[in-house]
Amino acid sequence: MKFPIASILVFAAAASFAQQGHGNQAPEAMKGLSFLVGNWAGKQNFNNPGSPLIADITIKAHAFAAGRFIEEELHTTLPGAKPTEVHHFISFDPKTNEYHAWWFNDTSNTPSELTGTLTGNELVLLSHPTNPKAPVMRATYDKVSDSAMNYKLEMKMGDSWQELFHNSYQKKG
Question: Taking a C-beta distance cutoff of 8 angstroms, is the pair 90, 72 a contact?
Answer without folding.
Answer: yes
